[in-house]
Amino acid sequence: MKVVAAMSGGVDSAVAAARAAEAGHEVTGIHLALSRNPKSYRSGARGCCTIEDANDARRAADVIGIPFYVWDLSDRFHTDVVEDFMDTYAAGQTPNPCLRCNEKIKFAAVLDKALALGFDAVATGHYATVRTSSSGAIELHRAIDAAKDQSYVLGVLDEQQLRHSLFPLGDTPKPQVRAEAAARGLLVADKPDSHDICFVADGDNAGWLREKLGDRAPNQGGEIRDDATGEVLGEHEGTFAFTIGQRKGLRLGRPAPDGRPRYVLDIEPVSGTVTVGPRERLAVDQVSGDRVRWCGAPLAAGTVLAGDGVSVQLRAHGAEHRAVVRVGDDALVVDLLDPADGIAPGQAVVVYDGTRVVGSATITATHRVEAAG
């Protein structure tokens, strides 16, 4: 096959490209230029989206012996990922920009361009596996290395996209990938993984949003209130600086009467009210979502998924929660048999049947566990 290998400049994508080439595919390495101004995104060897990363990717392609190009997708990235990130925070929700990047950039814009140029597939360094079922359906499954599994952020891919996707690392633990990179002479073998949002230069999400949103922010400040009493505990400069479950940076004027820390429970962007309370009030037992994406044949409205193998994941590296999933018209309602803490609208709920990814949705609402008594 003719394969485009998306090379971020990190160790995973370099080894994935090397494996694709070694498997006999005709591989071309590409690096995505995602910033209109390279200085506007973060710098340093952080593993994604910097000038240093582009150079690392080029050097890795040279070692592997494959052609290498840079594709400029900065306008598409800004519209579909950065603007979406800002709009979602401005609405009082918590987005996942990496998931949106996979949906809109790596497996939409890149794959569409690759297919138009005559390539057959896109290979990436994601930790996940693609399998063909006995019926011939293409399925997305968790990676062997549970600690590195990235199937959650790939839960937005449909079956057609999966048919043209290669994940060469899905069957390998991360330490072995680094050892293989060193053995292949790839200089990125010891390069640290990236964990921060690539377009927030210093990791300060609140400061970045304060600067970028400007007049688009729904409010320029508001009150922090106690969930139980309604008492005003402090003030803030904008709801975009908060997310559900946040503990640090609340700057409350005095401690709670019981001496326990408070957490953000609710964000109301129009009034600017941020509600805080004890940790146990973070627990939710139901989430609702829309913008459903199926990793296979769509499930009909009215379908109920239940049983020992049915679970959901609510964060990129979060735990699995046993669940009952009810399918509506482009919507899901998920009853959590294992309640979860600090879940915010804007995040994704990804549905699993065993190791197989069934699909995903964007969380629109949560229901808190009722307090005992």
Task: Describe the overall structure.
The protein has about 375 residues and is an alpha/beta fold. It has three domains: about 1-190, 3-Layer(aba) Sandwich (Rossmann fold); about 220-275, Adenine nucleotide alpha hydrolases-like domains (SH3 type barrels, Roll); about 280-370, Beta Barrel (Elongation Factor Tu (Ef-tu), domain 3), CATH 2.40.30. Helices cover about 25% and strands about 30% of the residues. The chain has seven helices and 18 strands. Helix 1 (about 10-20) packs parallel to helix 2, helix 1 (about 10-20) crosses helix 6 (about 175-185) and helix 3 (about 75-90) packs antiparallel against helix 4. The longest helix has 20 residues, at about 95-115. The relative contact order is 0.13.
Provide tags for this entry.
373 residues; Rossmann fold; Elongation Factor Tu (Ef-tu), domain 3; 3 domains; 5-stranded parallel beta sheet
Topology:
Elements: E1 2-6, H1 11-22, E2 26-33, H2 51-64, E3 68-72, H3 74-90, H4 97-116, E4 121-123, E5 128-132, E6 138-142, H5 159-163, E7 165-166, H6 174-183, H7 205-213, E8 222-226, E9 232-236, E10 263-268, E11 273-277, E12 283-294, E13 304-305, E14 310-313, E15 320-328, E16 331-341, E17 348-353, E18 356-368
Parallel strand pairs: 1-2, 1-4, 2-3, 4-7, 8-11
Antiparallel strand pairs: 5-6, 8-9, 10-11, 12-16, 12-18, 13-15, 14-15, 14-17, 15-16, 17-18
